[in-house]
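Need a sequence for this fold. Nothing fancy.
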């Protein structure tokens, strides 16, 4: 009778630790619920699918999760790393080729494992065999990557949690937080290369039938100083469809950055000649953001010549002079703006600067 009771309990546990049995209905997974977290880095996505055990007053490190290679791999009959969660493999998926802890990892899905040592050192392991249950059938010959890691002390986290921190344009740290430890792994993508490769493919499809696709791809190469020769090809294709300020000014920048300054200046003047007031204003502030004060003032002055009755053009010119430190011309420009009955936002900006400059 006792053996039957044990079997019934074991069967019930098997049903509750899976969301659905072969012939059963979907029920809540207990006690370690399933979870998924995704993060975009550049244009790439990293996704973690895992189960979340709780501490529940248990001694986790060295007991529940043994130190070193001491998790019994029942199917293989040898020790194995920790499955980095509960239930099935913790699975990490990369949408593009990545670099993990400085080592290349191809696009795809991998089982995520950790080795935890008592001295806060360890290893991260990515296994090409990611559809197994836990570590029971871990096979070292299927490893895609092994890399040493440093484990950090951390505030208490009751429920095992993955997160992404320390993000920048190309990279992030994936961290596992549980009990009082944080286990980090660095993930990087060659974002600029991926963007250019992706743009090349997109511009073989429907995106190629509008100038904005070529222009945005070319603008990316200019802004990030990458594949600018290809950027020049793209911007010429954009100009062939739509010759306007937005396309011409990108070509001007690319020519300048690739050592063709005289040609770039010629195209820049062509761009300014067809610019709207909004184009000139935005371009001037873009130059101010790059601390190119003289070039910004040149653009703002051109705007006041082309749109002499625009209070906003004079206000922007005043701001250019003010940021350069030319107080006299700044005051004159702001007063000119105020003399033209400007909109409230322009009036407020001119008055603010005049007060700062001691002219009100």
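Here you go.
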């Amino acid at each position: 009778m006792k053996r039957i009771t044990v079997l019934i309990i074991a069967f019930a546990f098997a049903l509750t630790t899976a969301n659905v049995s072969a012939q059963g209905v979907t029920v809540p997974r207990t006690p370690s619920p399933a979870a998924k977290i995704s993060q975009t880095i550049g244009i790439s996505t990293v996704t973690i699918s895992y189960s979340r055990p709780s501490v529940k007053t248990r001694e986790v490190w060295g007991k529940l999760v043994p130190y070193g290679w001491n998790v019994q791999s029942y199917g293989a009959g040898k020790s194995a790393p920790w499955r980095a969660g509960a239930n099935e493999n913790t699975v990490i998926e990369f949408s593009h080729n990545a670099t993990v802890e400085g080592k290349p990892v191809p696009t795809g899905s991998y089982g995520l494992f950790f080795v935890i040592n008592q001295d806060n050192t360890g290893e991260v392991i990515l296994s090409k065999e990611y559809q197994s249950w836990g570590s029971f059938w871990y096979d070292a010959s299927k490893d895609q990557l092994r890399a040493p890691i440093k484990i950090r002390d951390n505030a208490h986290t009751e429920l095992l949690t993955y997160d992404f921190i320390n993000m920048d344009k190309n990279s992030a740290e994936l961290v596992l937080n549980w009990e009082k430890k944080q286990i980090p792994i660095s993930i990087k993508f060659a974002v600029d290369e991926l963007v250019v490769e992706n743009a090349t493919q997109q511009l073989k499809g429907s995106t190629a039938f509008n100038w904005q696709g070529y222009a945005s791809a070319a603008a990316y190469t200019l802004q990030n100083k990458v594949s600018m020769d290809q950027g020049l090809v793209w911007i010429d294709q954009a100009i062939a469809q739509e010759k306007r300020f937005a396309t011409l000014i990108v070509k001007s920048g690319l020519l300048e950055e690739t050592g063709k300054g005289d040609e770039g200046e010629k195209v820049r003047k062509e761009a300014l000649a067809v610019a709207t007031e909004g184009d000139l204003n935005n371009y001037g502030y873009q130059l101010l953001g790059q601390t190119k004060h003289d070039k910004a003032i040149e653009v703002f002055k051109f705007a006041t010549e082309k749109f002499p009755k625009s209070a906003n053009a004079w206000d922007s010119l005043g701001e250019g002079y003010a940021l350069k430190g030319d107080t006299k011309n700044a005051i004159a420009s702001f007063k000119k703006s105020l003399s033209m009955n400007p909109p409230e936002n322009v009036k407020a900006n001119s008055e603010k600067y005049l007060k700062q400059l001691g002219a009100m």
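For context: Confidence is low (pLDDT under 50) at residues 1-18.
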